[in-house]
Amino acid sequence: MNALIYLRNEKSALVRNISKIIQHKGSYSEEVIIESSDFDSFQIFGYNYTFVGNESVAISGSDILYVSFSN
Questions:
Q1: CA distance 61 to 45
Q2: Could you tell me the end-to-end alpha-carbon distance of the chain, in angstroms, rounded to an integer?
Q3: Rounded distance, CA 49 to CA 6, Å?
Q4: Domain count within the chain
Q5: Cα–Cα–Cα angle for 51, 56, 62, rounded to 5 degrees
Q6: Segment 18-65, tens digit of pLDDT
Q7: Contacts with 41 (C-beta within 8 Å, 6 or more apart), sequence order
Q8: Within 10 A of 67 (CB to CB), how many other CB atoms are there?
Q9: Host domain of residue 32
Q10: Measured between alpha carbons, how far is 60 from 3 in angstroms, rounded to an integer?
């Protein structure tokens, strides 16, 4: 599965063969690891995220417009 991350600056980032998303610890939240089986329920908040696959991309949630998952 691939993740295409659309950013507020009109750019995008592709993560091929994504296996998990890490939502990093914030002021009110512990670190959360979102496995591929849970991508359907993924929501974007103001935390920092790392999308892990063939590439790893670290992005602030405030910079993400939306994420598209495809096979």
A1: 6
A2: 4
A3: 13
A4: 1
A5: 45
A6: 999 999 998 888 999 999 999 998 999 999 999 999 999 999 999 999
A7: none
A8: 21
A9: 2-70
A10: 16
Say if pTM beats, i.e. exceeds, 0.90.
yes
- The Cα–Cα gap between 65 and 24 comes to 18
Question: Rounded to 10 degrees, what is the CA torsion of 25, 30, 36, 39?
Answer: -90
Cα dist from 34 to 8, 11, 41, whole Å: 23, 24, 9
Contact status, residue 20 vs residue 35, Cβ threshold 8 Å: yes
Token readout for 26 is: 């914030």
Identify which of 33, 64, 58 has the alpha carbon closest to the alpha carbon of residue 46: 64
Listing DSSP states for the chain in one string gives: -EEEEEETTS-EEEETT--EEEE--BTTB--EEEEGGGGGG----SSEEEEESSSEEEEEGGGEEEEEEE-
